[in-house]
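Proteins fold reproducibly. Next comes an illustrative record:
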Amino acid sequence: MSTPILHLDISRRFGNHFLKARADVPLTGITALEGPSGSGKTLLLRSIAGLEKGANGSILFGDIVWQSQNRFVAPQARRIGYVFQDTRLFEHLDVAGNLAYGHKRAGAAPGVLQIVSAALDLGGLLHRQVNALSGGEKQRVALGRALAMQPQLLLLDEPLSGLDQARKAEILPYIARAVQATRCPAIYVSHERRETAFLADRIMKIQAGQLSAPVECETSLPAVLTKVGLDLALFVDGHQTGLSVAAKAGTKHKIRINTDSAILSRDNPGQSSALVCLPVEIINVTALDAQNCALVLGGQGWQIRLVKSATICAQMQLETGQKVWLNVTDANLMPD
């Protein structure tokens, strides 16, 4: 059975800019939408949600026409969950009340609240007032409220923009876990590669007014939790990482790396502050343009993709089949 598709073929002028969005987005997992500020990311999300009527063209959710020359489906009929940059929680309600509000109005299945609450670890917050929550807790509740409606698509518009890097790293696994638990496809807007590298299954970009087709985001390393003396550590291909997790020895996990923090070296760097340091093979080197090259690196049954400057690739004389060392200083443990 083929994966359903969100078909986009719209154009819109806004201010002195023009956006042309033509792409087929798989309705599974998380698709990241990247682009500089003012490129039209929020405009595209609002058009998908039915909150913008000024775009020309068509939007289809599977076989259902949401927008065409002769048809425009109202936002409430599209069953979309929307998480904004600001949480927009109801301050007169506690956490349980915020979750129940959308759930009841949408007529969602009874078990959805329990699934969402468990995935986002909201059980201990249900009777807390909104103004007593931290910024990260508010974002988890906002995400939970959107998913409690049992939407058929989740849109997240830079939901972590007001948080520091530590809080972002803490919340990203919750987002991934909630999307998995509810099986709700999501489009996640960010201009920060770190977030999309940790979270996305695929990435599409807005550049010079054009939306690119989604490209798979390959930033995952398979890891096994192994006993080291009295401690536990995650190993990738037999090499110890600087990451661990509270789980049983022998369990398998997934490490997502921030490819912007990846450094290649021809020799083993020895002791370093890198969270991940291991030998890899260069599977492919492709020139993207005069400034950059795309690299595919592989290990034992896995591969990742990253972009390096053409200057670095030339200086290191990188080529297919070559063995190099991968050093990563920024990584996060994510749900498998």
About this structure: The longest strand covers residues 276-287. Residues 50 and 75 are 5 Å apart (CA to CA).
